[in-house]
Each structure stands twice: as C-alpha cells, then as structure tokens.
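We treat protein structure as text, and this decision shapes the records that our systems exchange. Such a record has a labelled line for the sequence and another for the backbone structure tokens. The record that follows is passed on verbatim for readers who wish to inspect the format:
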Amino acid sequence: MKKVGFLVNPIAGMGGKVGLKGTDGKLDAAIKLGAENISYGRSKLFFNGLNDKTISNVHWLICGGPMGMGTLKDKMSYDVVYSPQERTSSLDTREACRKFLCEGCDLIVFCGGDGTARDVFSVIGDKIPMLGIPSGVKMLSGVFAINPSAAAELIELYIGDEASVKDAEIVDLDEEQYRLDRFAFKIFGIAKTIFEGNYIQSSKVLLKGAEEDEIKKDISRTIIEDMGDDTLYLLGAGSTLRTIGEDMGIDKTLLGIDAVKGKKLVSKDLNETGLLELLKHHEKVKLIISPIGAQGFIVGRGNLQITPEVIKKIGLDNILIVSTPAKLKTIQHLLVDSGDADLDDMFNEKRYLPVIIGYRTSTIKNIGIQNL
C-alpha cells in the first residue's frame, strides 16, 4: 500500500476572482472584497475522481482542520499527522511536509498554487515526487495536473505503476511585482513529479525577439481594424493584448482585464464584480484572450476574474483567441480549467478553436484532451 501525503492550502486562489492577482499577504483584502475558499471544492473534485481500487491501495497522511480533513471521502485509510493553526501559513505547509517525510510517504499531493509548490519543494527537494491539484491564481510550475480530475487519473496511473516520474521546474512570480503589472518570475528548483503526457501541464515559457514583436503588431492591426464602435471589447492578460492596447493609444495593463469601446478605455484591471457590472450595460461584447505559452490554458490560469458566470454571459462564440505562431508551436492543446465542468465540456466539444496568428491570418488549434 502506497503512502501519500495530502494537504490543502485553504487560501490559495482566493485573490483571483476579486482581481488581486494572488493572495500572498492580501488575505484580509481578498475577504473584504468577497473572496471565498476554492481549494476545498477543487480537493473534493480530486477525491471524487478516484476509483475504488485506488482508494483501497493508498494510505493517506493528511492534515487536520482547514488543511484538508473535510475533503476526504468515506472508507479511506488515513492518519492525521499534522494539525495546523486556525489561520494557516506557509510554515504549516512546510511542517506538514516534514511530518509526511518522517512517516515515510511515497508521494505528496497538494492543493494550491505556485507558492504552495515552493513551500512543499523547500522541504522535500527531489527526495520524493510531488503533484499539484491546481487551485491558485497562477500556476506556472510543471508539477500541476491540468485539473483536479486529471490529478485523480495520475494517482490511479501511479498506483498501478503506469505513470513515470520526471523532473519539473518549480516556478513562481513575485506577486508584488505582478500587482504592479510587471511579469517577473524565477525558477526555484527542479522537483520530481508523476507524469503522463495528457494530464500534466508544462511550466510557462516566455518568447521574446524582434520577429515576435512584429507579429504581435500584425495581430493588433487585425483586431483594431475589425473593432466595431458598438461593441465592448474585454482585453485579457499578456504581451500580445498589451500590444493591442498600445496601438490603440490606451494604457493597457499587462496582467489585468481591461475594457474598451469605440477604441477608448472604459475600465481597467477589472475583477469579476466589475466585469459582471459592465456586462449588464452592453449587449454586444467580445472577449480577446491569449493562451499561456507551453501550457495552452486560455481560461483558468492567471485570469480567474474571467469566471464561468462571466463567460456564459459573453458566450463562447464571442471569444477571440490570439497568439504568435512561435507560441502556438509550444502548445500541444488549448486548455480550459474554469472550475465549472459543464462549461469546460462546452469548450471541449468544439474540438478546435480559431486562433488569429498574424495580419488577416488565422489557424485552428485543437482544444481539450479527448480521453479526459
């Protein structure tokens, strides 16, 4: 029987919908803005995805209270090896991982984001594999499953000795710089993770160069020429979208969601509440987004303000995707992890989505993993 350590970061991802671009040092501000825990729901999706054989072949080492106790399923074999304080911190994550190692665990599964991955890695290094259930605002590291269901599939493969173990980068953003609209990230180390190509995400890559800049200008020209004055355009995060803003002469945030109408800035750095309020007053809306390089996510990583409710009001057919060809070559599939399984299915049922890749030039890219 395998021993698997499991922990939840209960505050991970709480800053996403409310537009804080992370929760580190901002928990009280997030709560005041109406932020709610999302990690428990993500953890329950993971456990609900485990089959009976896997449940019977794993002994879980878990944490009490807010770090995961309430997310377990019935009939699971487990020991509570660490009980945290009521308001948890990174110290609790690290102490829990030390307890897991002392108990001889074979693998650590955590529910959180890149900050949680860093804390786990700081204790275990490359001694044993780690697997992340994505629940943060940003997940750039290569140790995360593409969604909770995929994490469950990976555990099943691992228990059946059908998954390999590979090296994966632990990457994290400087959240203070991120909130100042600066994209600064760093590789903190190389961890071990369990791997099967369809289920694990890559770590983010950045592509730079004069040719990339010229292609972004071509994409921008196409978008701006086609903009109707009667339509509200929501510009997502990323350098391609910022180029569109710059070419319109507006102060586009690099990492936020901004609204434009008549080629004029309506509102910038919107959270979910701000987006929903705008949508009440505009009948025609287009959302323009760009996938994350190497990962392929268009929804669910770094843009949690674009919630299922926001997407449903906009409509899938009113979403435009833009990417340079070089970035698109790093992506195996376009992916969504909205937190709403029905909405994710609606995206995946399309099978292919158009992507604008240059001036009056588009291609199609497959979306979703067929065997999920």
